[in-house]
Amino acid sequence: MILVLIDHDRGELDPLSLRALTAARALGQDVEAVAIGSEAAGLAGIVGEYGAKVLHVAKHAMISDYTPMASGRALKDLVEKLKPAAVLAAGSPRGNEQLAHLAAFLDLPMAAECSEITLGSPHHVLRARWAGNLIESANVHAELLIATVLSFSVEPESINAPASTVAEFEPALEPQDSVVRILSRDSGESKGGVTLNDAKIIVSGGRGVGGADGFGNLEELAALLGGAVGCSRVVTSSGWRPHAEQVGQTGTKVAPDLYIAAGISGAMQHIAGMKNSKTIVVINTDPEAPILRYADYAIIGDLHQVIPALTSAIRQAKG
């Protein structure tokens, strides 16, 4: 049996978990799921639709929000009871963190960001390294495989199965398990109310935007398209935009239908976060910018002129 961690934010499913469920089904064994927090019981319908026969839900008074150490210990309790062949999760920051705690509690290795998984003795994985520019082939010498699935290496596929059976359990947590917890929240939503993970269209800006004030035009275009605003690491490092909007290896990895990169040169870590976008449009004054190698369409020009002109043309086309 394969056990898949379903990540959620107070009952709202992280769609990347559906990719992990799809990857788990490909391993040819029964699939069950686990989620931390009582709000997750409402996810039984969609979790079942993607192949999990059972949804185990960890309930405990200490688990009222995201607490990664408590998640790890709860997973340990369940794993020791169910004895799955593998535990998988989405290769998101939260998925990686929670399974890292599980691996530490069990004193086992963990393989993160896997694009391919083969169960065996030893298990075998392929992993993206160096911002996706290197594929690592590795053996995992452990009876239980603990691994996360590279976010966009598999497309989510529903099998229209019935809802999962919900099985609640109360893990044996310890006081120190809540040491790491959420103190405050930043929604990470753009002014249009769309997050990077949800957005079908992302308008991103880099150093070429010139400063915090320069993002006004990008916000206007993103709002017109019903999308979200993103940015490169240098932008957040400069304090122009919040980290929640950073696209890249150390930010959010995205794969929208349309990614517009304005004033972004194309550092390796940024490319790793957006190269799986279905269509990439680059706006840059430098015809030699590295990001142009990934562009489906390129506009060589000043973004401060191109973005307003593009916004105006779209507004006119919409009537």
UniProtKB/TrEMBL annotation:
Signal peptide: none annotated. InterPro entries: DHS-like_NAD/FAD-binding_dom, ETF_a/b_N, ETF_a/FixB, ETF_asu_C, Rossmann-like_a/b/a_fold. Belongs to the ETF alpha-subunit/FixB family. Residues 2-182 form the Electron transfer flavoprotein alpha/beta-subunit N-terminal domain. It comes from freshwater metagenome. Pfam families: ETF, ETF_alpha. Gene3D superfamilies: HUPs, TPP-binding domain. This is Unannotated protein. One of its GO terms (biological process) is fatty acid beta-oxidation using acyl-CoA dehydrogenase. Transmembrane segments: none annotated. GO terms for molecular function: electron transfer activity; flavin adenine dinucleotide binding.
